[in-house]
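Continuing the series of single-chain predictions for the mutant panel. This is the parent chain; the variants come on the following pages.
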Amino acid sequence: MNSDEIWLLQLWSGVFGAAISAVLAAGVALLVVTMTNKHQTKIAEAAKSAQEKQAANALAAQERMHAEQLVEQRAGLTRQLEEQQAETARARQAEAIMEFIKVTEKLVYEDRPAKEEQDTFGHIAELRAGLARIRMSSPETNELCDVLESWPYALGRLCISSAFAREQHRASGDWQAMNTAATKLHTFLPAWLLHKESRSKVLKVLKDAGEVLQKRSRQSDDDVEQAADAKSEVATEPES
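Parent structure:
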């Protein structure tokens, strides 16, 4: 092989070597770019995912906060409504109790003839209606109304018998019994409404007063019968 051929072979070897090197370099560069792009894509996807997760967490936290605020608002409105209902119930109780006291005092302290029994019966009906209003104002009044249940009828009987005793100029403890009961009612019934811690004491006082009223009422019936018998005997005695 002469020198020209050797030179030509070396030239082509260099060209092919350069070409191959260029191809390899380009391939490596392309591989590096591809891997870099994939890595950047993964980073971008991870960042996007993190942002989406962060946004979702923030939205969930905001929704929870709004839900908690709604719950608090609902609870506040419920408490306010319950307080208003309780205040309305207390107002109804107070009105019914004061009306019961007013009718009781009217029954005890109004001076009326014995023949006007119809007025007395009307006041008894008012008292019984007043007790019904007190009972309906709240379940907590049931025990109080049970204690006062006997009062209207006992007061009415004593009122009528007291009027008869006055007309007959006969001594009677009926009015004093009614006055004592009315005074206790006026004193202790508002205390039942205003002081819950004293209710058991108030109930005992009113229960005892009611029992005294019933006892006096039965005694008054006996007095009226005895007076009627005595009057009948006087009327049937022959004139001398």
